[in-house]
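Attaching the record inline, Q. Sequence:
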Amino acid sequence: MDMFVHCSVDNFQALEAALKQHAALPRSAATDLTKLVDSQHNTLMHACAQQGSLQCIQVIAKYVPALVTQRHAIAHTEPLHMAVSAGNVTTAHCLLTGGANPNSTWPDPALSVVGEAPVLTTPLATAIVKTNGPLLNLLLKAGAKVDPMALMLAIRGNQVSAVALLLDCCVRAGDVSVLGTQLPANVAAALHLPRGCTPLLAAVHNGLHDVAVQLIQYRASIEQSDGHGRRPLHVAASRNDVRTIRLLLQRNVQVDSTRDADAWNALHFAAEANAFQATTFLLQLGFNVNACANNLATTLHIACFNKSTSVVQALITAKVRAWVRGCVGVCGLEPCASAACVCGCRHRFLCGCESVSYTHLRAHETEADL
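Structure, as predicted:
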């Protein structure tokens, strides 16, 4: 009888007899069982993993151990990958006992993006996607290492308990370098995250405050930037996430940090994103409303350019207050060079008159190169 038929019904006794008979044949007459596949290109072990034939898996692992890690000719998956993808804990346990590698990878078409390199996933990452706690624990006990993909998937899914489990495993292993790992472009695109994103940046980007607290408690860097030069404080500001801004301040974040490419600070990012609450909070912290980027654009320029009405109003109010605090008696500022200005005195972008109009401000802002 065909060995694949024995596997399909988990007839391990008949399968073992067939394998013994095959082992007794001269090498020249014996078939290479690693090349024996069915119509779907499954090896004997793939077929057993697919069917959940536990006793047949044990028999095959005993007589043909190479089949435990043999890859599918088309999908490039090992039998363990099939069991994990199906969420079958008992089959995965049987394969791991037989010598399967818990850290093996395979290309995941579900995560791959057209135009990018294929995304390689791991059994641990798949268990995270399946939110399968028993399978996750099984893989970790079998020696699975916490890879960046698994941690990022747990963060993106807001799986607080899974994140804690993975980080505890890293601490026990004495290696928490995964916290500083930056995602390559293909993985970032698959997860809809910025290029070069770190775990903490991923949590802040997705507005997951509790996960961000966890990561910081495990000493994730609060200053590491992504591939676009944005730090966690910048991302929190652009997300209008005042809670996370407070959290970072409690951890002594560098408040005046700027992006190297254009000297944008957190207030610039908030203004760009029309993040009103973050803008007002940062202004209360004392952020300089007149701070210029490398192209001399202030936060007000950026807010006007992006038509962020509420942010524009908050910034204008802050500018007026700054002018009032700095004005003693006569304004003393240079005459306005703009033909549209009728006030006769000005700050660089804010006229010194008591009545500040939006039209007046826009007249001055056209002078700056956005």
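The first strand starts at residue 106 and ends at 107. The beta strands are 106-107, 120-121.

More tomorrow.
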